[in-house]
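retry 2 of 3: previous attempt timed out while embedding flavin-adenine dinucleotide. Reduced batch size to 1 and resubmitted. Inputs unchanged:
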Amino acid sequence: MKKIAIIGAGISGLFFANLVEKNKSFSYQIFERKNSIDLNDGYGIQLSVNSIKLLNKIGFNNFSKSQLYFPKKVIFLNAKDSKKICDIDLSQFNDENNLYTTLKRSNLIEFLLDGIPKDKLSFNCDLGDIKQGDKVSLLFSDKKTNKFDYLVSADGIYSKTKQILFKKDGLPEYFDAIALRGTIRDFSSFDISLYLGPNFHFVIYPINQNKEFNFIAVVRKELIKKKISDKDFLDDETFKKNLLNQISSKSNLNLVNQVEKIKCFPIFVSKKFQIPSSKNIFLTGDAFYSFPPSFAQGASQSIESANELFYDLQNNTSSYYKKRVLRAKQIISRSNLNHFAFHLSNPINILFRNTLLKYFSKNKKFLEKYLGKVYND
Ligand SMILES: Cc1cc2nc3c(=O)[nH]c(=O)nc-3n(C[C@H](O)[C@H](O)[C@H](O)COP(=O)(O)OP(=O)(O)OC[C@H]3O[C@@H](n4cnc5c(N)ncnc54)[C@H](O)[C@@H]3O)c2cc1C
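retry 2 succeeded.
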């Protein structure tokens, strides 16, 4: 039986492991850098029907409904006065069994961990080096492992695998934007509320049936290299409060008093597609390509890519990278367009954008192309 090493116990690595578990075509081991998996964080994640369909194949439809929310619409609003611009009916892309879903990221991880025997997951394994050949040898910070037939690298945006294989070119680049994450209790709307402001947008959505909401803001910010990697600077309470204040002052919501447990991090995206020359090394999820967050597809694509790779290995075909590049291009163009349109600051451009949004949000043909192609293809 062929042996697979999975690097990273994030969404992509764990979903891939669940597929192997269900099909028993390979043996595998997951190597995770951290010493445990944090199942307490309350931040949210959106999953569109393309990934829900795949999750349901491994039993997600049996997951406790009280831990999930099924938003029907995304509402676009002007941040300044909370006036509605338009809405998009997300439920038109649902079918009876597969619904657009929001939840706590930790609940998704918990579900994925449930499908994997404990001994398949090794902690404190920080990938140090890779020796390529017919078999792949992996060297971790403290111990050498066996050789594997395949390496599935799901080690996220700062993928060590990519850095080993592609050196500096394997590093992602700063997207000139900062993300602020937080939680809100008892918000007034149960849809996905997308507030547009000059050089920022923020999104509020429910993450379960318990009136808990996720807050995520993306704020354009140029930072010098030293500051981007300075964890103390980004963790500084005053910096986080100032950033939230900056958004709050340009909206009529009292975010400063409503948003709790604020975390701040710089947004990095992949520079280009990079495909390993070894035929037995595969990158999935953010390690393959990390998208700008304005299309909320990161987690869904992490699941999709793991699914495509598993079936490629199982059927002994080699179309994974070709298909993945095509799919990723669809997401990149939409994410970039959203990011640009969401952050306009010139009043004339904003008026023009809002008029277009009103028109396109009700245009079935456009929605089918822009969203349906991603959610339902
Ligand atoms: C602001 C923001 C908002 C987002 N919102 C959404 C959303 O609403 N919907 C959505 O679909 N997506 C969203 N995303 C994206 C989504 O979170 C990611 O795309 C997704 O988590 C990537 O999954 P992954 O498994 O590839 O990587 P990760 O989840 O990052 O997992 C990587 C794992 O690899 C481990 N690892 C790293 N290096 C090593 C190493 N050297 N050795 C061993 N293990 C290692 C890490 O510890 C981690 O456990 C958002 C992203 C951002 C930045």
